[in-house]
Amino acid sequence: MAEGIACYKIFISGLLDITDNLKDNDVVPPEDVLRRDGDDPYLVVAADKGTAAFSDIANGLARDYGFWLDDAFASGGSNGYDHKKMGITAKGAWVSVQRHFREKDINVQTDSITIAGIGDMSGDVFGNGLLCSEAVKLVAAFDHRDIFVDPDPDPAKSYKERHRLFDLPRSSWQDYNARLISRGGGVFSRKSKAISLSPEMKELLGFDPGQETATPNELMKAILKSHTDLLWFGGIGTYVKSSRESNGQAGDRANDSIRINGNELNCTVVAEGGNLACTQKGRIEYCLNGGLINTDAVDNSAGVDCSDNEVNIKILLNALVQDGKLTPKQRDTLLVEMTDEVSKIVLNDNYLQTQAISLARSSSIRELDSFIRFMNDLEKTAHLDRELEFLPTDDELIERTEEELGLTRPEIAVLVAYSKMGLYDELMASDILDDPYLDKYVIRAFPAQLRERYAPEICSHQLKRDIIAKEICNEIVNRGSIQSIKEETGALSPEIARAFLIAAEVFGLTALYEEIENLDYKVPATIQILMLMDVEIFAHRQTIWFLNNTDASRPIQAVIDQFKPGVQKLFSETIPVQGKSDDSLDFKVAMYCEQNVGKELASHISNLELKIAACDIVMVADDMKIEVTDVAQAYFLLGDKIGFDWLRAQAEMVESSDHWDRLAINSVVADLLDQQKNLTRSALANLQDGDSIEAARKWLEKVESSTNRIQKLINDFQTTGRINVTKLGFAARQIRNVIID
Fold first, then answer.
1. C-alpha to C-alpha distance for 68 and 42, rounded to whole angstroms
2. Which of 126, 451, 457, 685 is the most buried (most CB within 10 A)?
3. Distance, CA of 638 to CA of 22 (rounded, Å)
4. What is the DSSP string of 523-563?
5. Beta strands in 494-570 (DSSP E)
6. φ, ψ of residue 182 in degrees (nearest 5)
7. Dihedral of CA 366/372/374/378: which sign?
8. For the chain, how far is it from start to end, CA to CA, in angstroms?
9. CA distance linking residue 704 with residue 115, whole number of Å
10. What is the spatial distance between Cα 170 and Cα 165, in angstroms, rounded to a whole number?
11. What is residue 739's three-state secondary structure?
12. Are the CB atoms for 593 and 599 separated by under 8 Å?
């Protein structure tokens, strides 16, 4: 151990020798170093495997070097967050498990799913993971020493026994109380030459009824291939590859004899609490055969996420100590007090990340051509190497389109990561992060205890811009890609981000997202996805509206102040937003209510389409100095009488797998909205006595011959079958021409 620590110190010292430092907020380059890169004083150490107990050693070296991060340099340690004690990595992976099964209408906290696993109860990820639910049945597991089989466990008793083993200073499967193991099970050494197979083991693990014994390797391979609900990887090693990969390509010789292919997995869900349990090709192969899996980078990200939070928190707290606002003892006490809050922040990241994958997965089945374009863009802007990341070629994706397969979750996980990295780089290179409105994003990144006491100090954080960029990336990418907006508008990513954040605030979309997410286990997950996609579509359109109709150089808060009060007033009062009831909206509300969605939320989601024109209405009201509700009454009356409402409704129902058709539909909808806004201005130009409805009616009488021609066109559409992109484009041009005439 002494030699290992000595080598570790040499390694860490070497890193610090060539790393920039900060002194009084000024970058200080290392002495006698020829730098070929820019300033970068950010260097942190994440403990892992053999170095998990070395955090204090690394932090001691950082102090010796006078490194600016002090004990934020190496997370954990005596004054940091103990990942095993928190169980944070396992809990993060369990969020993935909950997501997979929730989307199959299974609640793993109450339903007794069967689990096979790799690891033992003394391990951090395996042990904490198998304590995340008291309802599960662990039927088989193995580590580097033993094989555990319990064909029909009692959930309550086995949970209690697992907890006992976890609490021991050291334990193995040999410590499991044999009297609690169900008939036909047992604990077997991996050193055994042969293991007798009971009838129960044969049935559980798929052995031939005539086979009486199995080698340990055969038994472990059977566990990997078992028909369990969940395969939980909590140990070290790569156990699944693709049928097109060799064992050598898996890079883990120790497990060559038991490794299986992705198409041999028979479990419903795989969770990778440990690193590299599967190769990426193995994951994809498993998914294409109907399995559910993310990637290890998604499933076990909570540990790294927790470390990132710890670093950011300690930077803040250390500054408070230096300023005399905290004593070191108070700092350490506060760190402990925030443990649960930090865990909550981290697990919410896991929740939103897995949800983002589900949303993109749903979209990829219908709009795979857009994902092809997205990957091509990432290759140009975010240094994506499709071959390196095992992403399908364009030809392979076209084949999947024909089979309605879409992208797999592991593939989407890679795209989400590159999307965030690309957006992050673009945001960091822009000036949007300096807008004062975005201070709320750095504040919200910290635990409640710090938000309440030290908000001004948080806004002076040394990594303020970096944290804001990270928060915005998560906000935008987790809620939907901006790629289609880039293609539709030609705008730069920072401009789109600004418009998205304005739209989210003006329409209260964050609260709406959270209201939908709070319906877990109350409504089917598929219904939640549908509602989230409705909000995503609405956010997409409002983002484009703010891109096209506001000055990008204006402060964000000024734009919000211009539109938010009017939007709130518009939809807090009862106004006739349509000339007649819309059966399709009523049907949608009823459908959501039948799935146990509250009527208020169901109506809110279903009526988002009616809010698409809200900012147009507010803009007209501001420009013409007319009450927003008066403008709305005229606007919606014209929409009904001229036919805008019907045409937009038809546009919403046009389905196309072609990227350009979808852009054309969006363009027509935007054009119709723009025309309706301009006609409303014309109708209200001679407003008298504040009667906007009367003014609109008089204007309609004035242009009756023109509107009759439009109505005839719409009547023709209604009697000539389904409407398409060509008809919509023709109608928009005719309306524009008729009104001009």
1. 9
2. 126
3. 63
4. S-HHHHHHHHHHHHHHHHHHHHHHHHHS-TTS-HHHHHHHH
5. none
6. -70, 165
7. positive
8. 89
9. 71
10. 8
11. helix
12. yes
Beta bridge partners of residue 241, listed in sequence order = 261
DSSP per residue, 64-95: HTT-TTGGGSBSSSTTS--HHHHTHHHHHHHH
- How wide is the angle at C-alpha 113 spanned by C-alphas 112 and 117, nearest 5°? 130
CB 225 within 8 A of CB 265: yes
**Does an H or E element contain 592, and which?**
helix 583-594
Amino acid, single-letter form, for residue 326: L
Could you tell me the two tokens for 737?
């021409």
How much is the pLDDT for 738? 60
Closest of 343, 313, 304, 345 to residue 331, by C-alpha: 313
Spatial CB neighbours of 622, under 8 Å, sequence gap ≥ 6: 562, 566
Collapse the DSSP code of 106 into the 3-class scheme (helix H, G, I; strand E, B; otherwise coil) and give the result.
coil
pLDDT at 578 over 60: no
Cα angle at 703 between 700 and 708, to 5 degrees?
A: 90
Cβ neighbours, 10 Å, residue 457: 15
- Name the more confident of 700 and 272: 272
Q: Which residue matches tokens 């500054």?
A: 319
Tell me if residue 214 falls in helix, strand or coil: strand
Which is nearest to 79 in space by CA: 285, 338, 278? 338
**Residue 655's pLDDT is what?**
75
- Number of Cβ within 10 Å of residue 42's Cβ equals 15
Q: Under a CB-based contact definition with an 8 Å cutoff, are residues 109 and 135 in contact? A: yes
pLDDT tens-place string over residues 431-469: 999 999 999 999 999 999 999 999 999 999 999 999 999
Tell me the domains of the chain and their CATH numbers: 2-78 (no CATH), 85-299 (3.40.50.720), 320-481 (no CATH), 508-740 (no CATH)
Spatial distance between the Cα atoms of 343 and 346, rounded to a whole number of angstroms? 5
416 phi-psi bin (left φ>0, alpha ψ -120 to 50, beta other): alpha
CA distance 114 to 136: 6
Do 224 and 175 form a contact (C-beta atoms < 8 A)? no
- 180 C-beta neighbours (distance < 10 Å), count: 16
Q: Give the three-class secondary structure for 554.
A: coil
Q: Which residues contact 398 (CB under 8 A, 6 or more apart)?
A: none
Can you tell me the distance from the alpha carbon of 128 to that of 550, in angstroms, rounded to the nearest whole number? 50
Question: Side chain identity at 730, as an amino acid letter?
Answer: F
170: three-class secondary structure by DSSP: coil
pLDDT for the residue 645: 83
Question: Using an 8 Å Cβ cutoff, are 112 and 160 in contact?
Answer: no
Write 455-460 long-range contacts (CB < 8 A, 24+).
457/316, 457/319, 457/320, 457/325, 458/316, 460/319
Whether the predicted pLDDT of 688 surpasses 80: no
Residue by residue, what is the 3-state secondary structure of 349-380?
HHHHHHHHHHHHHHHHHHCHHHHHHHHHHHHH
Task: Let me know: does 631 contact 616? Beta carbons within 8 Å.
Answer: no
Is 92's pLDDT higher than 70? yes
The answer to whether residues 120 and 173 touch, using CB atoms and an 8 Å cutoff, is: yes
Q: Which residues of 282-308 are buried (b: 16+ CB within 10 A; e: fewer)?
A: bbbbbbeeebbbbbbbbbbbbbbbbbb
Distance CA 154, CA 114 (A): 11
Q: Is 432 exposed, middle or buried (0-12, 13-18, 19+ CB in 10 A)?
A: buried
| CA 68/CA 61 separation, integer angstroms | 12
Closest CA to 158 of 185, 129, 136: 136
What is the DSSP pairing of strand 137-142 with strand 114-118? parallel
Q: What's the token pair of residue 91?
A: 């809990």
Least trusted range by pLDDT, from 83-87, 237-241, 584-588: 584-588
